[in-house]
Amino acid sequence: GFAIYSHGKEAISLFDEMLGAGIQPDAITFTALLSSCKHTGLIDQGWKFFDSMSADYNIMPTIEHYSCMVDLLGRAGYLDEAWDFIQAMPLAPDATVWGALLGSCRIHENLELAEIAAKNIFRLEPYNPANYVLMMNLYAMLNKWEDIEHIRDLMNALGVKSGHVWSWIRINQTVHVFSAVGKPHPDEGEIYFELYHLISAMKNLGYEPDIKCVYQSINDAEKEKVLLTHTEKLAITYGLIKTKSKAPIRVIKNTRICSDCHEAAKYMSLIRGREIFLKDGVRFHHFREGKCSCNDFW
Question: What are phi and psi of 68, to 5 degrees?
Fold first, then answer.
C-alpha cells in the first residue's frame, strides 16, 4: 500500500517497527520495501535493503527483487548503473527486468539502451502490445517516424493489436466511459468547451503542452489538439462540470497516465481547487493544489 501511494519513508518506518517487534522479514517483505523505494526515488535505501537480504537475513534475491532494483536505478536516471546491474545478475533477466529498463529509457530518452531492452522484451513477450507502444512512444519523442512505422509493421506481421485506452468516472451512480475509439460521449461539446477554457487558464499559469506524448508525424498545433482527446483529461473535465464545487474527482484509467495529462491534472487541481484521485495502470495519483502525491516520480 505504501509503495502504490509513494510513501516510501513510511514503509521503511513500518519495517523498522516490525524488526523492533521481533518479526523477521521474508522475501515478500523486501519486495514491498524495494517497490516503495523505487516509487519514491530512495536509491541509497534501496541498495541497503537489497544488500541486506543475503548479508543479514540469508534471503537470496529473486527476479522480482532484481527487477525492482533495475526500476529504482532507471527511474532515477542511473541507466548505465541499471545496465551494469542487469549484466551482473546471476539470474537470466525476464520480461519484467527488460520492461523496467525500457520504461526508464523512455523517461530519460536513452535510445541506445532502449533498443537493447526492446529487442529482448519483444523476444520474451512477442504478443504484448504495451511493449511495442512504449518503444513507439520513445521513437516519437525523438522524431524517429520511420522507426515507428517499423514497429507497426512488426506488430501487424505478428497480429498484435494495441489495446483500447479508456478512462471512466462515476457521477450520480452512472459510470461514464471515455475511450479513444467508439462513439463520442453525448456531452462531448460541453466537455471540450470547458476543456478549452481550462487549457487557456492553465497556460496563463505556465502550463506547456508536452507534445512529445503524441507519436504522430504532424505539426505542433495538431499535436496539441490530439492531447485534448486523451481520455483522462476528458474524464476529469467532465467531473469538474458535473460534480459539486469542492467535491473530489475520482477517475480510473486502464493504462499509464502520460506526462502531459499528469501535468495538466496538477494545474486543474490548482485552478479549480479540487482534489483529483486518478488510478492508472501503474499506481494511484492524488492531485491537490497543483501537486501530485507521487512527486512527479512514477
Answer: -60, -40
pLDDT digits (tens, 9 = 90+) for 104-137: 999 999 999 999 999 999 999 999 998 998 999 8
Q: What is the C-alpha separation between 63 and 189, in angstroms, rounded?
A: 49
The contacts of residue 113 (CB under 8 Å, 6+ apart) are 79, 83, 101, 105
The number of residues making up the chain comes to 298
Domain regions of the chain by residue span? 8-158, 166-292
CB contact set of 231 (below 8 Å; sequence gap of 6+): 165, 166, 167, 178, 179, 180, 253
Residue 74 near residue 82 (C-beta atoms within 8 A)? yes
Which pTM value belongs to this model?
0.82
- Looking at CATH, the fold of the domain delimited by 8-158 is given as 1.25.40
pLDDT by residue (tens digit) across 170-195?
999 999 999 988 888 999 999 999 99
